[in-house]
Design the sequence.
């Protein structure tokens, strides 16, 4: 017997037929003797419709009212799934965030979960009842509904799994796991059986849009094992008994991964713009002078590269922003010319960031050198490089994106034969 | 300065344009210096969609889950109206039933309001904030959303008006008031400036579908003056200042109606079926033997006519049921033949009940005689008659419905010139 939280996204509950399919997945786990709580998103498209209505009502709307409107989508699917489960003979009830309660902070529209009273849910486990929980929401200190921001149902699921001490949090989605790279670019990409939280964080934030980044962070902090799997697999064809290994990718602590590969995957992020400030005065406070105003303008700066200047007086500063923010970033930087003190502002919108990720590179030398040589062999020019303990990110021209991903995937031996 | 509860139905909040129109009505009252709480229904069609989803999920569904699903419609419109009001510079916030709270009993799907904590709403009045309240719902003793049954938003509005001691509960709808009869049948029908609760109850339950019957009962019990008016009138063309008399019909205590007419209106209910049991044993308990089984089968019996029998041994019993229940009623009565003991069961599905309503008839003789003579003059045969203190109901063949309504409307002088 295991205690499992199952999370289903919007495409998995898009209509009554799919909700019935979800109910079959849940019933299978119950029939196998497990204790189950389910977290659901709104029907796909529903949240967008509700968000658009709030915008149509007023472009500058009260986030608390936005939350009241938008949270209704999950309320509907939680009730419908509970009804469907009951019709299959499975004891079930729906729970809204305010009923459990899932307490959040007051940041309406992008709230963070502060605490969850798991005791009421555990009581229901004991009597074999399935808790069907509206994802993406909780209740703020003002006694009003607070939503967690887009994709927040993943975070709800992991937080609930932590609060009830679940053995696993199954994230059912429209893909059957996490791959070594995007299979649309590299057909030889392979599904990973396991990946560490740290690696998944890099994969998620670098463009592999399987999971919300915050949910992985939360899984890591609370040690919640997450299992990414497909909701479109035939529910009857899956063995859920103790010890069976269904198709999917387990996200877990690295010590649970026996044979750790040096490189786990190749991620990429398109639509990056590069900005270079030439001959910036190399003095204390100049970074703050550049990035302070950008942050104030809510522009998300990603890679930052600063070279040591030759004579200690002038340096070049390169960084990336999303393409969509390039015009605004340029405007902000031009306004800040006096306080920063640069000579030339150059920018280029057609960039892609390719990243090599692997926890094993901490203990293996030469991983970066392999990547650089690989790209050089294909004639791909490297614009900028940033590295962390477990990843190497390389900025290149967008037109080389697919070639770079495929070449790196091959050079680290990630592909299927 | 008055304290006003404004209620808007589904057609009044059907889309963002109409919600904006509603907001203008609200702003007008605020600008005139009044304290305002608003009660909204779901967008028209939305509740049906949600109800159908619960049926599709399972025909035999848990009423608690039905409530969670269906209540979401009002949650959406309450938030959207609050946002729209804010965009017009009106301080507003949405309230769900569980936030106020509006406490109900546990009869999910058809719950009754037990108490409302009006204090929080009154606090908001003091600071000039508009409370936008999701109608049709409250919270049950099980801490779960409970809906009040179809049309329950009228009842929500009146209950809230009672809890905050409102001067008036304005019911905005798609007609501009209560008429002396259905204007589609009698173009000379006139809008009533005032009607008593008792008369409105008869009008509402007899087929004038302007208001939910329960809301009028509640208005009567708590002395909440209700004002039926149109949401489609141009909000800017209405004078809301103290003492102004906008277009609509006030439902109030009879002592507020100075010039009471003898007859206030003519109502009708189509699709009635007549059932007659001939030569029933005239003994104690026979009525129970007839109507007990019908009640057990959830068949709503309306008019009941029993004549005193000639010799004290046998009598005829006539009553009406909705056409749609006739087959079931017949079946129930045939099964109960032995316990009732009748000789012949006759039925006729093509009936209409026409009613003459007026509080003044309590103190005026001859009102009934006028109706009977009027119908006789037109050659309309009367099948059955029932009377109460303030109404006379007459069962006739359906083909004479319009003629009867128009003739009675004229004979009591209700029409415009």
Sequence:
């Amino acid at each position: 017997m295991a205690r499992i939280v199952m999370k289903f996204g919007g495409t998995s509950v898009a209509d009554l037929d799919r909700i019935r399919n979800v109910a079959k997945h849940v019933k299978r786990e119950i029939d196998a003797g497990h204790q189950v709580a389910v977290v659901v998103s709104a029907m796909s498209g529903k949240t967008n419709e509700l968000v658009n209505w709030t915008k149509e009502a007023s472009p500058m709307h009260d986030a608390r009212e936005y939350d009241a409107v938008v949270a209704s989508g999950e309320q509907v699917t939680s009730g419908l799934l509970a009804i469907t489960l009951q019709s299959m003979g499975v004891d079930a009830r729906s729970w809204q965030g305010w009923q459990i309660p899932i307490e959040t902070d007051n940041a309406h529209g992008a709230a963070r979960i502060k605490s969850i009273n798991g005791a009421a849910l555990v009581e229901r486990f004991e009597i074999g009842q399935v808790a069907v929980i509206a994802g993406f929401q909780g209740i703020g200190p003002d006694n009003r509904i607070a939503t967690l921001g887009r994709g927040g149902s993943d975070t709800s699921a992991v937080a609930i799994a932590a609060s009830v001490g679940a053995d696993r949090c199954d994230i059912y989605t429209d893909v059957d796991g996490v791959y070594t790279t995007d299979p649309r670019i590299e057909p030889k990409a392979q599904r990973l059986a396991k990946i560490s939280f740290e690696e998944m964080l890099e994969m998620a934030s670098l463009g592999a849009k399987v999971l919300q980044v915050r949910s992985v962070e939360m899984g890591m902090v609370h040690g919640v094992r997450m299992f990414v799997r497909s909701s479109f697999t035939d529910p009857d064809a899956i063995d859920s008994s103790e010890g069976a290994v269904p198709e999917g990718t387990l996200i877990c602590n690295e010590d649970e991964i026996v044979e750790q590969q040096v490189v786990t995957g190749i991620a990429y992020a398109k639509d990056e713009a590069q900005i270079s400030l030439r001959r910036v005065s190399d003095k204390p406070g100049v970074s703050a002078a550049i990035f302070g105003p950008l942050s104030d303008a809510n522009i998300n700066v990603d890679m930052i590269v600063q070279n040591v200047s030759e004579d200690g007086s002038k340096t070049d500063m390169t960084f990336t922003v999303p393409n969509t923010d390039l015009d605004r970033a340029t405007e902000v930087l031009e306004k800040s010319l006096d306080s920063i003190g640069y000579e030339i502002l150059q920018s280029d919108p057609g960039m892609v960031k390719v990243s090599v990720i692997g926890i094993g590179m901490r203990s293996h030398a030469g991983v970066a050198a392999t990547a650089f040589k690989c790209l050089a062999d294909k004639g791909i020019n490297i614009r900028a490089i940033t590295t962390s303990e477990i990843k190497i990110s390389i900025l290149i021209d967008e037109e080389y994106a697919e070639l770079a991903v495929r070449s790196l995937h091959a050079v680290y031996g990630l592909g299927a034969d």
